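It would be a great kindness if you could assist me with a short task in structural biology. The matter concerns a single protein, recorded as an amino acid sequence and a row of backbone structure tokens. Could you please explain, in whatever detail you think fit, how the structure tokens follow from the sequence? Thank you for your consideration; the sequence and its tokens are set out here:
___
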Amino acid sequence: MFLSLSIQADFVSPHIASIAEFMVVSTSDSDSSVALDACEFWLTFASLSDEVCSFEMVQTVQSLLPRLIPILLNGMVYQNDKIEELLEQNIADENQSPDRLQDVAPIFHKSRHSKGEVGESEEDTSDDDNEWSLRKCSAASLDVLAGMYGPSAILPHFLPALQEGLTNNNLWVREASILALGAIAEGCQGEMEVHLTQLYSYLLSQLKEDLPQLRCIACWTICRYGEWICEQGCQEQSPSAMIGNLVEELMLLFLNVNKSIQVASCSAFGRLVESCSELLVPFLEPIYKTIIKALSFYQTKSLLVLFDTVSVMAEFIGQATGSMNLPEIYIPPLVTFWQSHHDPLNQQLLPLMECLSCVTAVVGSSIQPWAVQIFDLVSESIIYQIYSAYRLIYSFSCFPISVLLQLKNVD
């Protein structure tokens, strides 16, 4: 069906009313596999080009939105078996259980500037679970439908369901509603501004909840509205107050023992950096000090995200990351970490090298006190690390050759 919809939509168009009705009913099926298959119909439909999707098809699906939107919100609630798994994981995190290498996907820094607008990355996720599920499909479907139909068609049916979910006593229903609020951010952000002041305060309160999953999803959703936060910060009499408060809350979460919270707060802060860039300069010293504290106890998965966050800071904040005494705060611990984990097969080293290459390219001569150490470490890298090693060496191109030779001969 989905192949026919995407390739031969003209054959589907005459039957769209009965097909869409069937899909609405099936999306709420008690069998999650049936519901997932049906939910993918909406994701495929909203991805159709204007040339393929007829006016009748668009109108037919729009007429079903009052019923479909609450169903999608319900589909975002974790299934009972998944909730049990998450609760077990929370306990394991409290006990500092080690990461299993087979569960850690590699993370390589990619320039955000090359992806277009903030939030367009296909890697942007609401949690750190890579499994495709009814929850993720429901959120993705709501996201693309909001982009397709816009706030006038979405919000009248979305806001009542959102209000009911956010005030629900069931924490997992509340968590799903916060996910839904983040899912509509791109398609409805302008019209949501009238509600965001109240919702922002609510989301900040969720960062203090006991349930780690609530904290994680609140991090993600807050920073989906990062541009609005920065605009509000610029309009205040004390421009840095709102942003500073959010930074403080995220830094506290950086140091949480729960690994999902660590990943979520690092990722959310990275998105905030993309949106606010130079507005974060007044807070760089406490931010870097927090990052170094986290470096001392993070495990593999959290470390990979942390290194990428440092790269994003260098890319979007720029030369300010190398000003004053800031390099002395964060560069020596990164170099020391590399020296103490210098196993050629350590999968943390590639992201660390990527991180240092981004930092070096931005801070320029401020890297000079540690240049010899970094060059010596790069020279010991084996073949599988060559790409990142080359990038790191290339980032030293800001130095004249004579300076590099002088640095190498210091000792």
Notes: DSSP finds 21 helices and no strands in the chain. The first helix runs from residue 2 to 7. The two ends are 70 Å apart (CA to CA). The domain at 1-94+122-224 is CATH 1.25.10.10 (Leucine-rich Repeat Variant).
